[in-house]
């Protein structure tokens, strides 16, 4: 089954009561390291993949999703530098310096991998042939507007293919840590950094939550087992919305004591 933004995401029926005084009890979990946060996010997004999907993974954290594609699932990963059929990161004995993704990291190739020009790659993206893209973010707002390519005053490496991806992909997932290093919200009422795309995000996955972007607001679909509603809301600028019955537990790995 294939999904599109119009079929799955911005549905008014998913809205429910807003988060205020509700709270879920956290377990006796070991605090996550930065690496473990990234792994949790990548593992959760990998559960959204389906047989036959053509998927683009953005630079940085999103590329980790390739390591957690469910066994037996036929997913074709695309890299915008011209590779279709990207496999997981290689073991040291498997490294081939000629096989790299758009972030210049070494990758593996799967049987049937195809190589082509950057022009063909972006024709695929702009033509609407990518079922799902996973991108990092600096900020996302309550309407699904994305800022992920520039911080004024800091070194600019270029915008990459994110603007094409958010316009051309059928579903847009954001993979990011929930807050900045000084615990400032990254999910805002309105983005303040240079924009990548207006109202383009469908889902946000952090180490704490899975959020659906809907016309009625940001719906908290899943909550991590070591997080509380109070904690999540304190790190999120817009008021979150609960689905009927409340958020489900996030089916994600976590080290325990």
List keywords for this structure.
single chain, 257 residues, alpha/beta, 10-stranded mixed beta sheet, 3-stranded mixed beta sheet, 5 helices, disordered N terminus
Q: What is the compact description of this entry?
A:
This protein is of the alpha/beta class and 257 residues long. It is 15% helix and 20% strand. The N and C termini lie far apart (39 Å).
Separate helix tally: 5
**Helix/strand order:** HHEEEEHEEEHEEEEEHE
Please give the alpha-carbon distance between the first and last residues. 39 Å
Q: Strand-residue fraction? A: 15-25%
Care to count the β-strands?
13
- Percent of residues in helices: 10-25%
Commentary on this structure:
This protein is an alpha/beta fold and 257 residues long. It is 15% helix and 20% strand. The protein contains five helices and 13 strands. A hairpin with a 2-residue loop joins β11 and β12. It is globular and about 45 Å long. It starts with a helix and ends in an 8-residue tail after the last strand. Mean pLDDT is 88; it is low at 1-26.
């Amino acid at each position: 089954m294939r999904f599109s933004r119009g079929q799955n995401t911005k549905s008014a029926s998913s809205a429910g009561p807003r988060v205020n005084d509700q709270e879920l009890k956290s377990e006796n979990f070991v605090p996550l390291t930065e690496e473990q946060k990234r792994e949790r996010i990548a593992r959760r997004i990998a559960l959204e993949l389906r047989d036959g999907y053509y998927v683009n993974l953005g630079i940085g954290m999103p590329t980790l999703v390739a390591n957690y594609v469910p066994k037996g699932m036929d997913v074709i990963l695309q890299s915008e530098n011209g590779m279709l059929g990207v496999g997981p990161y290689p073991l040291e004995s498997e490294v081939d310096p000629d096989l790299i993704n758009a972030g210049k990291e070494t990758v593996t190739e799967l049987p049937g991998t195809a190589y082509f020009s950057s022009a063909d790659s972006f024709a695929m993206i702009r033509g609407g042939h990518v079922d799902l893209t996973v991108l990092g973010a600096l900020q996302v707002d309550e309407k699904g507007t994305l800022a992920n390519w520039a911080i004024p005053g800091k070194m600019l490496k270029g915008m990459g293919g994110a603007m094409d991806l958010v316009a051309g992909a059928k579903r847009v997932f954001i993979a990011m840590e929930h807050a900045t290093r000084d615990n400032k919200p990254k999910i805002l009422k309105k983005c303040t950094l240079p924009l990548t795309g207006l109202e383009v995000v469908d889902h946000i996955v952090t180490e704490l939550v899975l959020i659906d972007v809907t016309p009625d607001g940001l719906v908290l679909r899943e909550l991590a087992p070591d997080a509380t509603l109070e904690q999540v809301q304190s790190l999120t600028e817009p008021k979150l919305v609960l689905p009927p019955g409340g958020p489900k537990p996030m089916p994600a790995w976590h080290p325990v004591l």
